[in-house]
Write a structure and sequence with these properties.
single chain, 116 residues, alpha+beta, Ribosomal Protein S5, domain 2, 4 helices, 4 strands, globular
């Protein structure tokens, strides 16, 4: 995932939270906001991994895993939108024990709720 495809400024996150919508499952919440109604522009991703998920090493590992999953699912994500994936406590342990494909399925499930 390239840097221009990431949300990094707090005002971008706030726009997604305030003006967007959200869906969730047991382990993730996906917030999204239509940035460009024409569908132009690449989708951008922000990650919100709270301290309740674990120490910094665990949170950073989870961020890397979620970015890799997002890259895999890039063709399933509509353009012109900003997304924030928020992890819930317990996600890191579940991803570690159940594996990469489980994490892909979790992200695919919340994306499917948005666009299904």
């Amino acid at each position: 995932m390239e840097r221009r495809q990431r949300l990094s400024r707090s005002r971008d996150f706030e726009a997604v939270y305030r003006q967007g919508r959200s869906v969730s499952n047991r382990s993730l919440t996906l917030h999204w906001f239509v940035r460009d109604p024409d569908g132009a522009g690449e989708p951008r991703l922000g990650l919100a991994i709270p301290r309740a998920v674990g120490p910094a090493v665990t949170r950073n590992r989870l961020k890397r895993q979620l970015r890799a999953v997002w890259d895999e699912l890039a063709t399933e994500v509509p353009a012109g939108r900003d997304y924030v994936v928020a992890a819930r406590p317990g996600l890191a342990e579940a991803a570690e024990s159940r594996g990469h494909q489980w994490l892909v399925d979790q992200v695919r499930e919340v994306i499917g709720k948005v666009h299904g």
